[in-house]
């Protein structure tokens, strides 16, 4: 009995002596919705950012003769009812409608193309570091007509599944890069504004109010339209990231300022000041870390806004431009009545975009609750 009591007391002591971040992790794990959102985001970033070339059966700009071909169904049972251990797809046969003069494709059961795994195709660098030419799946290309388009093709005959993978890389990364720059600007200007006060605080706060006075999308459009047409696609990409960060930093700076105002009179800050700590050390070594839990939550909830802003600008033709490919660029190509009517598979981008936004919101809500481990929820 005494041993059990001692064991229970030691467990209670261990739980009480846990650090703040241990308590945050413990509470976060209890939120299954947030955990699912985090797992989805890890899988998405791994697939779209790290393994896009490995998962894509074709390169980004590889074209075929199958323009606007529908998705090919992966099968295990053929037309005769025979089961195959190796999955396969049927070949595509082109037909011309004599009335509408529209080109259509139908499956040809006489042509069977088995799907092979870990095939050698176009060379690339895995994770941008390791040269290789192994792709996850593909068909035997000794037959020029062999193809596998599990999500169909676009108007230029390019595999849409491969383009979604490559496009997701830019869309997901612009959210992270844009939010990183927003954090940099918002945290630095917010802590300076809250610490010094006076004219400095007045200048920073009036600047944020000036930026917030403009609606987001029209301001994005005006700044993005000012990007010169002759700039390289990579330069446009980084410029668009800077524009998104420039417009978004104000809200974070105001929140950091409010937190700094409540922290700068704490005992540990006064002790550090009396010990001779410089203003820079007080701001970035003692005050700013006290706002990190709040900043992490704000950043997580703001990344979806960055992704949606890039998507909207690219869809309007003011964001990323070919040959760069993002989900917004793909939606621009699919944003016509003709595409919706005759090539609805070009809307495959929308589910991936919605799942990403939903996963970020699930993760952000979970972090918001977990960052208050002593709360009742």
Keywords:
single chain; 4-stranded antiparallel β-sheet; 377 residues; alpha+beta; MetI-like fold
Offer a quick outline of the entry.
This protein has 377 residues and is an alpha+beta fold. It is built from 14 helices and four strands.
Strand content of the residues, in percent? 5-15%
Rg over CA atoms, rounded to whole Å, is 27 Å
CATH fold name of the largest domain, please?
MetI-like fold
Second CATH tier, the architecture of the largest domain: Orthogonal Bundle
Number of domains: 2
Order of helices and strands: HHHHEEEEHHHHHHHHHH
Q: How do the strands of the widest beta sheet line up side by side?
A: 1-2-3-4
Tell how many strands the DSSP assignment holds: 4
> Class by helix and strand content?
alpha+beta
Would you identify the CATH H-level superfamily of the largest domain? Answer: MetI-like
Question: How would you describe the oligomerization state of the chains in this entry?
Answer: single chain
Quickly name the level 1 CATH class of the largest domain: Mainly Alpha
Give unreliable regions as ranges. Answer: 11-15
Distance between the termini: 34 Å
What is the count of helical runs? 14
Mean pLDDT: 83
Q: Share of helix among residues? A: 55-70%
